[in-house]
Amino acid sequence: MLKDMREGMKPVMWVVAIAFIGATFLWGASTGVSILRERKINTVAEVGSKTVNIDEFMEYLTMDYLISKAQYEQTYGRLTPEMEQELLLNSARKTSETLIHMKLLIQEAERLGLVVTDEEVRKYIRRSAFFQDEEGNFDYSLYEQIVGNFFYSTPAFFEEQIRREILASNLVDLILTSARFTDQDISDIYLRGKETADIALIAFPAKDYMDQVSIKSLDLEKYFQEHGKRYYLPRQAKIRYIFVDFNRMERQVTITEEMLRSFYEEHKSDYAVAGLVHLRTILIEVSSDATPAQKDAARKKAQDIIAELSAGEDFSKLASQYSDDSYTAEQGGDMGFLPLGMTGEEELDKILMNLDEGKFTKEPVETPQGFHIFYRDADIPRFEDEREQIEKKLTKMKAEETARIRAYEIFQALSGGRDIDDIATELGIEARSTEYFGDDGVIKEIGSKPQLAAEVFQLEQVADVGKVYENYEYSPLIPQPVLTGYYVYLLEDFKEAHLPEFEEVKEQVSEDAKLDAALSLARKDAEKLLSKVGDSSIDSLAKTAGLEVERITNITRQKGIDGVGNYKELLDWVFEGEIGSPSPVLESPAVAYIITVENRTTPSDAEISAEAYNVLPTSLREFSTKLYQDYYISLRKNVNILITPEEILGIFSAGPEEESTQIPPGIMGF
Predict the structure, then answer these.
(1) Of 4, 86, 150, 240, whose Cβ has the fewest other Cβ atoms within 10 Å?
(2) 142 Cβ partners below 8 Å, 6+ apart?
(3) Domain count, the chain
(4) pLDDT (average), residues 162-172
(5) Domain assignment present for 189
(6) Candidate from 169-173, 396-400, 609-613 with smallest mean pLDDT
(7) Does one domain contain both 458 and 335?
(8) Domain coverage including residue 364
(9) Is 534 exposed, middle or buried (0-12, 13-18, 19+ CB in 10 A)?
(10) Could you please report the per-residue DSSP string of 631-666?
(11) Among 279, 295, 297, which residue's Cα sits nearest to residue 287?
(12) How far apart are CA 477 and CA 485, in angstroms?
């Protein structure tokens, strides 16, 4: 993590991030940790034989949050309190997963006997440009300053994190070096995208034979026994839940005028955007072919308007009356909020930047359009301009607060033994039940909720109450997921993984057996046709049976066969079978085929030698990534999360933070 952060951030981000470190930590870290310890909660997660403790969680969370906040504010300006809360939660979740990831890799590295010496750590740090002076030499005082201010850390702690990072990196390198390709592998990858084929085929769809199959003739129970694995059901659960909906709460929220004005006054400075100024203008237009006399007249008119402004006349009124810029004139000369230095004309930019709020230019400003009089309006929008947005924001905030309180009230009532349907009736909302769902988290009534499913399957018995679940909606048009409400639920029923009784799946067994029987009939017809005609062309075969031939071109192994699919048996024949000869009968799950390859284009050995290695970086990266993901997933099974980031943040409250007076020097202090 630290390596990516150092290499990926611009130096200016270090300066911006350091500025935040001196501020009081938002949540009162020591107070929150004390509360956790009073509750005997010292461990966030168990990672095999190691643990993630609350102290290191807070160390990493502090650093990640402050850096993320600095990055966001540099890009988007000052964050609202709601945005800060969302950023904090994201940092907490990322911190939890980062520490788990690191612990897993370190544990595995230690198991394999990998070590990192002090000298390796020194070399790693000394090579960092951030700790070097202008001549490229390591500067220990700069090192102490950056580690203390930016990483909110001591040299000893920082160096230990670097040691762990190197150790984890060495393990990853060891894993990825096992992803080796032979020349044949590289050639095969290249050919998957470059080798093409054109085919002609005759299709025998099983659906065309369904009416020839009699269910009575099928031994469904025997079919079920022979194909039992197909119907094996993973563990399943169903929940009964109440959804506390933000939208419903918004309709019940009342926002007074006093609340709107109070919010505006308290957050007025938030509306000012650095680098933008609010300008109005009056334009006295001068055409490009104007005579000197016409130009002088226009200047005189602008000067007369300035005289009226100096006498106290309202700028907006005069803009509406005199300005030749029809668009802004209708708005009282309002040009909106514009960036400083926007014109590209040095003198004009200088005039605008030196114009104080509430002042207008004392002389006409000549531009190619004519003579302008500029007025700098308040850089903070008026309450009237922001009222609608403030009302929407306050309504949303109040609805979210009300929904959160309501959700936890329901949770407390359920945990206390109240009936969920009685609670729903009292609140005038509906308690609902889901259908059974599995570990994949696809819940028909709610959507794809793998995290919710994971929490449900941690419950021990029916009627146990689950954690309040925050429901987020995702959209490619919205950079951050949107919290839409809360699910409060209990486990209504649970089924262990099992092979269902025949009667439970009889309908599906019947459909499958009938399809297989129909496919068997289709295959027999195809085989009969092949046996009668021998090596005849595919067009002759089709004509004999009164069938149609379909031709498909430009097939590759990567794309598969249009309208057919990406079935290995079929593709193997397309790219390995004899050109011009009908194939044996080939099958997809619901269609039998006879295929003839009419043309196949294969790159020459010279082309493969010249181009194949161009695909290596991408292919190796994809292969290595998959290899590492599989490896990490196997390690991740050894993780037991004892307290979630959401639960940790729910405990923290502002409070004084104790400071240590003894700072370990670390191994760089020699």
Answers:
(1) 4
(2) 131, 132, 133
(3) 4
(4) 81
(5) no
(6) 609-613
(7) no
(8) 273-379
(9) exposed
(10) HHHHHHTTEEESS-HHHHHHH---------S-----
(11) 295
(12) 20
